[in-house]
Amino acid sequence: MEIHTLQKITTKKRRRLGQGHGSGRVKTSGRGTKGQNARSKRPMRFEGGALPLTKRLPFLRGKQKNKSFRPKALVLNLSNLNQLPKDTVVDIATLIKHNLINADAVKTHPVKLLADGEITVALTVAVPVSKSAQAKIEKAGGSVTS
């Protein structure tokens, strides 16, 4: 057995306070003497009488307030569509069939087509596209229907 073959331990054991002289934490169990912090009846969220964090934060009310929680779009570039046959209708099912996007990810994230790369195949695109991607698709002889 060598040290690099040992199983990794990522969690430390919780310190057992108030367990007698052998623990190394006798009498006050590491809390010091007297005072508010030495007592047991104090919630963890207590901030010494100051206005708590949960009350200092504003309410997140209304539309468009929780943008950070919204899922980011799955980005697909035009250069990825060159492997599709000519005159294909590009929709979510087609993209999944050709392994361009993950089927599980589509359930929770929207898809958007961006204009990175060139497209040489005329396709009919039925997913959301950027304006520059739409121009490149139409220049290649395709169309956008979304």
Q: What does it look like?
A:
By secondary structure, this protein is an alpha/beta fold. The protein folds into two domains: 15-57, no CATH class; 68-144, Ribosomal Protein L15, Chain: K, domain 2. Helices cover 16% and strands 10% of the residues. The protein has four helices and five strands; from the N terminus they run H-E-E-H-H-E-E-H-E. The protein has helices at 53-56, 92-97, 103-106, 131-139, and strands at 74-77, 89-90, 111-114, 124-125, 143-144. A three-stranded parallel β-sheet has the order 2-4-5. A two-stranded parallel ribbon has the order 1-3. The chain is elongated, with a radius of gyration of 30 Å. It starts with 52 loop residues before the first helix and ends with a strand. The mean pLDDT is 88.
Calculate Rg over CA atoms. 30 Å
What is the SS-derived class?
A: alpha/beta
- Approximately what portion of the residues adopt beta-strand conformation? 5-15%
The level 1 CATH classification of the largest domain is Alpha Beta
Distance between the termini: 62 Å
Order of SSEs? HEEHHEEHE
Can you give the helix content as a percent range? 10-25%
